[in-house]
Design brief:
Blueprint lengths: L1 H30 L3 H16 L7 E6 L2 E6 L10 H18 L5 E5 L3 H6 L3 E5 L3 H13 L1 H6 L2 H10 L2 E7 L6
Parallel strand pairs: 2-3
Antiparallel strand pairs: 1-2, 3-5, 4-5
Helix pairs in contact: 1-7, 5-7
Length: 176
């Protein structure tokens, strides 16, 4: 499926931030609308005041079955390799274990599956909707390292081909 439409996706996702940026500049210049900037600032302040921002790359949400860690970079564009992402993820998990020692910590991903499987983490398949895939495309393009190394097409093909997986990053200890 991706062979036919992959270039269109790459072009669309690469130019989406540029289009958004030019639209933002036009709105600010023409109408003095700072709504988008204000929204981003308020969103980041909310994450920080609620304590849900763990570090530059990760946030979390608490749900019924445990805590879910999310790759949510603070800045729209960033430059990170595998080691840096894993280091920040490990730091985020350590913070969550200190904050919630009796909760399981999970991660749902379309893009880091091979890394998680190499680490031997427990997994289960989860349903992925359209917006999860769009988010994965955007996160992939937002990492400038992927653009520099020319990996966008390969990662988009992988995102299209795989099912979503939920990994157990930390399993609570029985408190009996």
């Amino acid at each position: 499926m991706c062979e036919k439409y992959c270039y269109q996706k790459v072009i669309a996702v690469l130019f989406l931030p540029l289009g958004m940026l030019s639209a933002l500049i036009f709105l600010i210049w023409e109408y003095n609308i700072f709504g988008i900037i204000i929204f981003i600032v308020i969103y980041e302040l909310t994450l920080r005041t609620n304590g849900k921002r763990l570090n530059l790359y990760y946030t979390y949400t608490k749900e019924n079955d445990g805590i879910y860690i999310h790759h949510n970079p603070m800045f729209i564009f960033y430059y990170a390799d595998k080691d840096r992402l894993l280091r920040y993820r490990s730091d985020a998990i350590d913070k969550l274990i200190k904050k919630f020692p009796t909760e399981n910590i999970f991660s749902e991903t379309l893009t880091l599956q091979q890394i998680n499987e190499d680490m031997g983490l427990e997994k289960e398949n989860v349903k992925v909707n359209f917006w999860d895939r769009v988010n994965s495309y955007f996160i992939t393009v937002a990492n400038a390292r992927n653009i520099k190394r020319g990996r966008i097409r390969r990662y988009f093909t992988r995102i299209d081909a795989v099912e979503g997986r939920k990994y157990v990053l930390y399993k609570r200890k029985n408190m009996l």
